[in-house]
Structure formats: structure tokens, C-alpha cells
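Dear support,

We are seeing what looks like truncated structure output for some complexes. This example has two components. We would appreciate it if you could run it in full and send us the complete C-alpha cell output so we can diff it against ours.
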Amino acid sequence: MVEEKAGEGRPSIKATKAAAQISQLRRWHYDRLNHARDYGQFVALSMIGVADEVLRSFDVMVSLGENYGPVCAAKQVSGHFCGIAEGDGYSVDLCSYLKTGMGYLSRLKEVGDTPPEAPYGGMGKPDMIVAPAIFCDGRYKYPQAARRYIDVPSFVYDMRDIPYWEYEEDPQSINRYVDYYYERLKELVAFLERATGKKYDPDRLSECVDLWVKGHNIFRDACEFRKCRPNPLPSQDSFAVCFPNLNYKGTKECVDYYQMLYDELKLMADNKIGAIQDEKYRIFWLGLPPWFYLGIFNYLQDNGVCTLDRTYDPGERIEDVDLRDPLYAVAKKCYDTFWFGSGQMRRWNMASRFADFIEEYQVDGVITLMATTCRMSTGMLHQRRLINEWAGVPVLNLEADMVDVRTFSEAHVKARLDAFLETIDAAKGRRAG
Amino acid sequence: MAAGNGLGAAKEIYRNRSKRAMELKGEGKKVMGYFCCYTPIELITAAGLVPYRIMGDTKEPTTEADIYLDPVFCPYVRTCFDIAMKGRYDFLDGSLWPTSCDNLINVYGIWQYNLKPVYTYQLSIPKVADSLALKFFKEDVGYLRQSLEKLIGREISDAAISQAVERHNENRALLRELYQLRQQDPPPLSGAEVTQILVAVMSLPVAEANQLLRGVIDEVKQRGDGPQSKSARLLISGNELDDSTFIELIEDCGANVVADDMCIGTRFFWHDVEKTADPLDGLTNRYLGDIRCPRIYRGNPEMTRREEMEERFKHIRDLAKEYNVNGAIIYILKYCDSEEWEAPDLREYIQEELGLPVLHIEHDYSTVALAPWRTRVQAFVEMVG
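Here is the complete output from our reference environment:
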């Protein structure tokens, strides 16, 4: 086991200037969160999947509980915060993203202020909790549990994952889900009006939605450059550049960032510049990374491997947004971006999509991380078997948590990666011969 | 041959719980497996099918599941899949899958792919239980009804559903009557016996289950060989405990388990389905609104945390009072996130609001090696008593 030492870190080296800038942007984002009141803004403890543009239209900044997990992991303090949450009675098996947030909040209550060990000055002091009940069980149970540390107004709203079979049989069935979500958004607006004392402003929301869509589409288009050979957007960059999309979507800063990323990637692609020029292997990273050790991608790169992933891709392009009712537009685009990773998709559907990617991206092998505390990752074993069978490429599974470094052995993982590259070599040889 | 009645019959059915369903299948009936308390079993009965709750086997090594399912899957779900892969659920004509939790959602497709069942249906369950969610859920219950109609090749009438509601309500009333007997000290039947009876009930057509329960209640009311009075009267709260071994262990340690808030327990039967003009209204209200599972978010923005906790756990307060308990065990199967996120709040509520000691157990479902648990339970029971 690797002993965790706060501040030591195992940072990755980025291929693009845009990805290298993320550290600064992260600092800027958390600085804004920690000084929200100075800017006349509120802070909502929330989760990925929240209607962030609606909150933003009320001057509410979103502090993503789960996203602070990777930030703390990169700074090697996630295990510390997880340990605190576990000491408060939360199971070691619970999502370590969320436990990191719980540990932070526990310390916030204990210290009465931002705990000094919190990276980037902390994730803010929430004025409210707003949580969408979607994707996983922890996503709405965690905010409820967080009230033991911050007893602020709380709004948890239901969203329905459309069962994938229903969508397959009748794509129009999605309208029912949009309408349901739309009604929930009206409730969210009523809550925000009470919590902030501000009136709902459709024009302001329209601006936020417009920016949200612009940022979304540019980011989506930028991700397409991964198909290029050599690939200019390897995983060490990919897992960094998703930060604005997750944390401050619906802002001009987000749009500007993705335009910069797009321009840089296009220039690289036009000039056939990649993270590495001679890609000996292309490996598809499926699922979450070990956030405390993104240097794993550099280790692979040093061995001639270009890694690519689609974990935080934004989903389908959004066209023709009707802003006459911007709140309805928020609901509709949520389901318009319906993507292979969302909804109650069966693992074999996912495996089938991944097998297509593997062919499209000319991938030689797949690595998955069995994130031990992520319940949504369960089913990966079955999925890996199918990918191996359908795509005919070797698949390696690494067992570790996504942010809790206490579960990780660097030496062991490197030994397995080395062996895996030999397996890929042999498989490539067989295919060629 | 229909099941007999009385405690002996219940125990026999518990030990060989598929026997009756297989007999009925041999007679030409169709058997519909289902998971969880959120499946509206009235629709199964109304369709003329035999409802059969899918459970695991706490003593079976999960050799098949190990091949297909990650080790961090809910151990109950793993063992259900395992024994299905070994052919022990081949007698089922189909299965119903409420989207109650991440584990059930994720294993659904794996079950479909590997077991290739003739019929499965996934029922979407909202995470809240307000009027909007109830309306949405009612539509989904309607789709389930249509799906079952397609399966059996005929309409399921409102009258048939209402009749099924009546029978299942009778079943619930009988179980509540049985539970009420546990308020006595000593309780006339043990917690382990109650688990066995519940498992038996969930393995039979409702009419046979009701007959069994009437016999059990008559026998229990007259028996003279029930449990002894013990200083610890415990309530147990948690998820799937469909094997009596663990309850036996607790009771062997000097406690009587007299009340529960469990999936194989009060969550299954505590609330009736209201008779409504459109029977789907009653089903919807009961299944989404009344079941006290932590997977439903209970709260609203106006509530303080204290008020929200009262809303979430007041049924535990009522049970603890009615059954005069002096300690509680929170029993959670590993990897059940809804329960795990709830546990610290529940522990705080029981300790601080109800003034009762709590033992929190995270278990892996297996009853093969329970010795380490015995030590913990013994220490807890000594503290309570």
C-alpha cells in the first residue's frame, strides 16, 4: 500500500496548454466559491446533474459535493476526509467522492471555518442544499445526511432515468420524462425564490441556457479530436478539461475555455501533433480514473501508450434550443443530451457501444478501474467480458477506489500494466499474423 | 397439494420454499418472481399468476456470481443471481424488477443477458413520494399492468385487481395480528419464527398464505412453549434478512427480537392498499407513499433537520413504543447505499430521541461463519439487559 502524505501528490503532465491551465482555473473557481458573498452570490451544496444554469440565474454558485473528491485526491487528502466521515459512522463502502465531502463538512463544523487542510481554501460554506435524485442512490442520500453538519434549507428533487428499453422501443416516450422534470424545475424555481429572495428572471435564465449550450457544444466538438491519430487529447488531459463543464457550465468563462481548448486541439490535429507522435498502442480507459494518481497516464505514455476515454464527455450535440420558455428548454435539453452512459442502460447495451468506440477509435486494449465504492460501476465485470468477446481486444481491470488512495498500490498497478502491455503486444501480433 | 397451516407447516415451507410454487407450476399455473417490497404483487395475483419473492441462499457459496458480478455488488443480489445461474429459479415464468436501488438496476441487464428469461419487466420507482411522483408512478404501474396482460393474453380487469387487493389486505391484516402478539412479554413466538413465517408467506399464493397465517395465529395464541421472558427486547431495522439464522443468533444471546423495520418484515405488510374507484390509485399510494424504505426521500424545504428526521423515523418511534423495546439493532447488508447513508442519522435518532442503545451491523448476508458476530451481539445484549 502507498502511504498517503498530504501535499506530496503524483501529478500528471499535460499534453495541451488548455489542460495545464486547469489548475489555475480550479483555484479561481474555489476562490469564487469561498468568497461568494463578496460577489453578492449564494452557494449551494449540490451534485453533478443539477440544473446548474437555473441556480446560476439566481446568482447561486454550485459547489459540487462529489467533485471536491477528485480535487482532494489530487492533493492527497481525500483519504483524510474519508477517514473523518468513517469516524462519524459512514461506511467504508460508501462513495468516497461523497465521503470526502462529508469529511470536509464535518471538519467545517468542528473548526467553525474552512479546515486548513482543505485544498484551494475549501469548497465554500453552503447557504443551501440542492440535489437532484438521479444517477445513483448516494446522490440524494448524501445531501440529506450532510444536514448533520450544515442545517441549511434543503431541496431534493426527483428526476427519472428513462429505462433504456423504453427509449429503444419508443423514442417519443422521453416526452413524459421531460414533462416530469419540467414540473420539478418549477418547484426548484419556487425554492430558489424563497432561499435567495430574488424573483425568477426568464431573460437571465435564457442567457445562462444559451451559454450552457454553447459551452456544451464546443466541448463536445473538441472531444471529437480524440479520433485523430496521433490523439491530441489523452486521458491525463481529458480528466482535467472536464472541470469547467462540471463546475461552472452556463458561464462565459466556460465557453471561452472550451473555445480555447477547441482551437488548440484543432491546431494540433491539423498539424498531426499528438500527445505522443508514435502511438505504439491506443488504450481506451473505461470509467473513472484513480484521481490521486493521474500520473498513471504519463506512465503509460512513457511506454508508448496513448490513452483515451469518454468518461466525462458531455453527450450529444444540442441543436435548436427553443428559449421561449427557458425552463422547459432546461428540461428538454437534459434528455436531448441523453447519452450512452445515462439512463438505465443495460450493461450489454453499454458494452455494445464501447465495442463500437473501440473499432472507431482503433483501440488495442481496454483498461477499467473497478471503483470499489462506486455503486454505479457495478456490472463492469460483465461488461468487460462482453467487450473482450465482441471487440476482441484484451481488457485489464484494476481494483482500487477512485479517490481513496488507501486502497491503492502503485507498484502493484505498474506491474499489472507492464504485463498488460505484453498481452496487447501478443494480441496485436496474433491479429497481424 | 396446498400448504398446511400452523407453525410446523410454516417452518416446512420456509425450509423448502420453492416446493409449493413448483407444484403449482406442475399443475399448469405460472409463477412470477419478484424482488423487493416495491413490486405491486396484487397485479400478479390479479393476473392469475403465483407471486414468488426472489430470495438468496445465505449458505450457498457464490461460485457462479463470482464470474459475472463484481464483488462490490450487494451480497443478497449476488446470491440471487448465483442460485438463478445454478438453475434454482428455472421454475419461474418471469420476474419483476422495481428500480429500488443501484444494485437491482445494474444486475437487471446482467440477469437478462445471462439467464435469458422469457419475461422480465422493470418498474421505475420515483425517489420521492409527493403528488407529482404518485401521478408518474401510477402511469408506470399501468404500463406494468399492460405488460402482464400481454403476457397472459387477456385483460386484467379492475374487479380482479380490487379482489386481489382485498386478499392481500387480508394477508397484511393477519400479519399485523400476528405481530401484535409480540407486544406481550414474553412474546409467544420468537423473532426467528416470524422470519420463517414471512418467508413462507412470500412463497405462496395469497389465499394459501392467508390460510397458513390463520393456523399460525391460532396455534401461537394457545401455545405454552414459546420464548421465555428476557431482559432485552429488541427492534431490528435494516434491509434483506430472509434467513432466520441471524435472528436465532441474537435470540440465543439472551434477547427477544419483538419488532422490526425490515424488508422481510413490516415494510412488506404494515400498510394496506386503500380501496379506490380506480384500483391503481390505491396501489400507487400504498407502494410509493407508505413503504418506509430509506430509498424514498422524505422531507421538504421547509423542514429543519430535526423535523426531517422525525418524518423519516417516526415509524421507528411508534414501533419501539408499541413493542416496548429497550434496544435496537441496525442490520445492513453491505453495499446498500440507501441504508448506509441513513444509518448514522437513524442511530442518532434512536439513541438521542428514543434513548435506546444501538448496535450497527454491516453484514455480508452469509450465515456460514457467524461466530465473530456472536461476540458483538452478546456484548450488546448484556449492555441492554
